[in-house]
Amino acid sequence: MKQLELRYVAHVTTITDILQEGHQTEAVTIRELLDELDARYGGFHELFVNLDTGQLNLNTMIYYSDPGEVPISVIDLDHPIGDGGTVTFW
Amino acid sequence: MTARDNRVQTILWADLSNGSTRLEMLPEEWTRKYLGCRGINARLLFDEVKAGTDPLGPDNVLFFGTGPMDGLPVGMGRMSIACKSPRGTVAEGSFGGFFGPELRRAGIDYLAIRGQADHPVYLYIEDGRIEVRDASHLWGLKTNETDAALRKELSDPDVQLRYIGPAAENLVHASPIFGNLNNSGGRAGCGEVMASKRLKAIAVRGSRGIRVADYDAFLEAYKVLRQRLDLATSRDMWTPVWSTYGAPVLARLFTDIGNLMTCNAREMRWDFDKATRISAENYLDNYVTKAKACWCCPWPACQKLHEIKSGKYQGFKGGNYWAAQPVTFGSLIDNDDLDWLLVISGLCNQYGLDVFHVGYTLAWAMECFENGLLTMADTDGLELRFGCQDKDGLIDLVRKIAMREGFGDLLALGCAEASKIVGRGSERFCLCVKGQELEGIAERNLYMVALGVAVSEVGPDHTRWYPPYPCNPSLISKEELAELGIDLDLRLAFQGRNPEQKGKLLRWFTISRAIVESMPSCVFLVRDTLGLDMRPWWNLFKAATGVELDYPEFVMAGERLLNLDRAFNVREGYRRADDHPPIRMATEDVPYFGYRKLDAEDFEPMLDEYYEANGWTVATSIPTRKKLEELGLGDVADEFDALGIEVE
Q: What is the ipTM of this complex?
């Protein structure tokens, strides 16, 4: 089980109704994390996943950082996530 | 009610030294060459304010410009103000609101004010008639007090007003002109120039209609533009986000990625919880009482009115929370108390101060204090540290800056001049370009921002090259770029710390925004296609004015404006050496993520590329004769020759 810090910015907060939260997960990738969040809140798939390509919608952004590391802009939704990571959804 | 058309534009000249006024028509050709608003203001400024003119003397001219699209019901309610800055550069600023459309409805497109009155006055304009009225009773009033007093005096709650506050009257650095209580424009010192003329306010009322030349074509052109701007159909999904939250939505993201200027930009990551407390999300949920749009804007409203609902400042009302406030009175001075932040920025509006001047100068003073360059003996006993412990003391300091009292008199000079007086290395803490404080966007990991800030003719002003955030190169395709004749590799251009393509990208952004502000429209509406496809604006302009010009001619009007602004500065002695980032950005690495300083080996090639792309002499930044003649500005090259300026 991993512990993540999740941050929601701007319009994403209209789905979550909160600005940030700690989140325990067994998800291995960003894609699996999106599945979990979509099940909890609804609307994550529609916002972040391009239905044609199955990859990140070009007009959205997800930043991911391992503890103490440079946040990277996620391009591949199969990007791995690790314990203590921070994920920012734009 | 009579209607007027848009092909020929009018100018009202007012000389406050003798009270004379005259209304003239501008040459019809100018609508084709300079479009309007910022474009025509640039031409007027170059022609009327000669080299070496005393900025605070009677010969400086203050222009209020509208444009052929102003007042049409398509979200075109901007206006431009221009004069020579007290710092010697072009001073130009853009306003939203309703004043521009009202001035046009009064039959006046441009207002040119020269001379100096011998006592405070205000101008009252109604349907082409102008009166110079005594304003002795208004002099010294804050902006909100002036607004209320004039509406009462004129018995007209809907009169459109522009005014200055006590800060401008006291010639405080960078004082802008205000309107609608919370809107300001012309932070390069237009308020100081207005005060030097003893002009407290302008009130305008108009009742004429404005007629487009080709109604059907106009409607068709508007449908296309509207589709691009519409929250539901824009190709940029950030359109609704931006129109709802505005620029402060960047605060939380920017601190996450090490791009939020914190403690005078010696740090670039702020505590995330602090950023959340001053975020747009918190503001919208807990403070906003009403959304407010400019004239017929298709977006719901990027402006907001707010009220503090509890606590020490309960009942304090104000408006507008943009990128400026969370940086200048938030991260830059390490304050996460949004109540106090809204109070201090609201007081700046009331005193007529520029929030960037005050925020950056406070941050400079705090860093000086923490390094022993200023002591409590200098600061009137105020412990001036990041974190803003003495909040009441800081509120009083803002008043002192406006009134030039005690320590406030030093800060009223702005941090560039203040650091010259304090010396001893305090210049390193001064974040200015061309004597003007920076704005909200950081430089060291967004090279295009650094270049745009450095080369801007008015000093830091992101609206002159506004890059839509988040920058998304996929908003326009390679095929569309080729169709538009734009030779640009957007993949490289949008890489934050890669110097390649930045000069070319900045040139196109600058031209595009110059066109938008000459219509005039709002640069924040250019998200779709990054504003690089100007054809919707071109079609609207043709239909509104009846002026037939091809697309390259239309684009050239933006380039002409850019060259006129550059030429004005060249004539005043500004050269390549003045187009540089602040010392801190050029000499100190960002302490995160390996972001380095903006060193010369990266910056100078960007500058070369920008000058080359513009057809300017790389060594000097002076437009070449060939370029000026290509733009139909041979007279500018001739004037350079006459003044002994070396033009290639």
A: 0.82
The verdict on B389 and B277 lying in the same domain is yes
Number of domains in chain A: 1
Residue A73, min C-alpha distance to chain B (Å): 10
- Does residue B224 fall inside a structural domain? no
Looking at the complex, does the CB of residue A9 fall below 8 Å from at least one CB of chain B?
Answer: yes
At residue B218's C-alpha, the angle toward residues B31 and B479, to 5°, is 85
What is the pTM for the complete model shown?
0.95
Find the residue in B nearest to A47 (Cα): B237
pLDDT digits (tens, 9 = 90+) for B278-309: 999 999 999 999 988 888 887 766 788 999 99
Return the CATH number at A56.
3.10.20.30
Smallest Cβ distance to A63: which of B238, B257, B282?
B257
Which residue range is the domain that position B39 belongs to? 3-210
Candidates B249, B191, B145; CA nearest to B524 is: B249
Whole-angstrom distance, CA of residue A8 vs CA of residue B594: 26
Interface mutation vs chain B, best among A9, A17, A65, A86, most B CBs within 10 Å: A9
Q: Which helix (H) or strand (E) holds A8?
A: strand A2-8
Query: For B560-599, what is each residue's pLDDT tens digit?
Result: 999 999 999 999 999 999 999 999 999 998 877 667 899 9
Same domain for B469 and B414: no
Query: Do B63 and B136 share a domain, yes or no?
Result: yes
Q: State the best of B235, B236, B270, B281 to mutate against chain A, taking most chain A CBs within 10 Å.
A: B281
The rounded mean pLDDT for chain B is 94
Chain A residues in contact with B258 by the CB 8 A cut-off are 70-71
Q: Is the pLDDT of residue A58 over 80?
A: no
Does the CB of A52 have a partner CB in chain B at under 8 Å? no
What is the distance between the alpha carbons of residues B78 and B71, in angstroms, rounded to a whole number? 9
Rounded distance between C-alpha atoms, residue B272 and residue B269, angstroms: 8
Position B397, amino acid: L
The reply to whether residue A59 touches residue B236, judged by beta carbons under 8 angstroms, is yes
CB contact under 8 A, B281 and A58: no
